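The following block was generated as part of the benchmark described in Methods. Ligand: magnesium ion.
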Amino acid sequence: MTFALHGIPVSKGIAIGRAVLISRAALEVSHYLIEPGKEDAEAQKLLDAFDQVRLELDQLRLGLPKDAPQEMAAFLDVHGMILADPALAEKPLKLIRTQRLNAAWALTTELNDLLEQFAEIEDAYLKERGNDIRQVAERVLKALNSRQKDAVEDPEFIAPTDLGTDAIIVAHDIAPHDMLRFKDHLFTGFVTDLGGKTSHTAIVARSMEIPAVVGVRHASEMIRHGDWLVIDGEHGVVVVSPDEQLLSEYRLLQTQAIEETRKLQLLKHSRTTTADDVAIELFANIELPDDATQAVELGAVGVGLFRSEFLFMDRHQALPDEEQQYQEYRRVVDLMHGLPVNIRTIDVGADKALGAGTDLSQTGTSPLGLRAIRWSLTEPEIFLTQLRAILRASAHGQARIMIPMLAHAKEIDETLRLIEKAKSQLHQRGQAFNPNIQVGAMIEIPAAALVLPLFINRFDFLSIGTNDLIQYTLAIDRADHAVAHLYDPLHPAILNLLYSIISQAKRANIPIAVCGEMAGDPTLTKLLLGLGLTDFSMHFSQLLLVKREILKADVGLLKSLMPAVLAAIEPEAQSQALERLLT
Ligand code: PEP
Ligand code: MG
């Protein structure tokens, strides 16, 4: 039966393919094909993991205190029985042998199938057994995972497998770093139950130029493995089991979208000036050093935001040391051939967790918690290591330091003191760096916007993080789909705040950019131009779309229409003023 689900559109385009359901447990494990001839060894790994868990359960049972509640022993018995049932290992072993899936992948595939069957059972007691099976399988996965960590260096591990060119990933939630890991896989779209338009998961999905819809509540329950799906990434619609007529309509739209993308390529080499000849600079946002290649190819004049924390979020690896970081930063600098590169210092916390390969103090999961520079200042050694690595990269090109989430003068001063300290450490070591490296701040907390001279006086450049500025001004958790409808870049408070920041910075002659998702949204380009913005930083996938809007725009006219937009706080008045500006 055909039905449609609705969510939040995050990445444009039409995808047509088959659902591949990925459970949370499945995301904790790697997916790759084992080399031919290694099937038996891989099967043995799975059997060994089962043995290990059997031993663990025996030990738990023996270690139960005499006064332990009876249910505890019964619970362990049930888990022991599930583990002893040869059926649990049977299918995964077959998948390893016939399809060469790695053991953890094979096991999670079977787990997903079993959980689907249990979800359909009416009887509450039997339904609950599904949870027991999940717990047992997760124990086995954990046992496999602990072996797998050592195996990352193992030459028998090869590149992650392609999921299939028509695979559409469906998951309850995907952490930003897991999303990035999918970058190496071949697939055609994403659907998640959770997430907001500017959650970091959505940002990474957009950067992959793959149609994606997030916040599709219950998608992972209503869609079944193998279902045919159409994702309309522009309107946030997911059609499940489309009929032939719908399919051919979407195929037509898909062809049109491909043609439009092809036409856009013609803009790659044109100058970025408005119709009334105002020069605009387009920078790229990147998550991984190699993204810089495409940024240059599409005509970016620099990297406006390198989210360096993605180097720190791999849960299978320890934090990169100074040398490793230096190599990564240097790679971006080299790939950009002398163009500026704003390396944003680690912004972990909230929806970006620090890699679990460390036993470092926890970052908060609350967006109001220990995040970004707040965390870096509580870990000065890690921060200094990063600063030295960026400074060393600055000897090879225009690496610049950009600091996220500042609000207080004392945070700024402590940050600048540590930058000076990092410089003197390198000086003592006799290592090269640019002593005049530019240091910039992100303006993404309303308090910072309201005391802008504090920043203008202390920094070389500023960049507005609208994703967080909106989140903190409107008190909307940007990753929470339940309040996503209130996340509004057009709220009059946001527009007035942006105007105030941009005009103060322009008057003070300090470079000001926007690097939040607003900058990459072509429907907002005219608005930002009207607000006086000339530096835009966005994911490279959006560059040409925004450029097309810029080429058509008349900044003089837009600026003349802006006072009416800014003065309008009643919805009716605002939409009229915006209509005059945007049409
Ligand atoms: C922002 O907040 O707008 C920004 C660019 O940074 P991030 O999305 O990584 O928080
Ligand atoms: Mg931010």
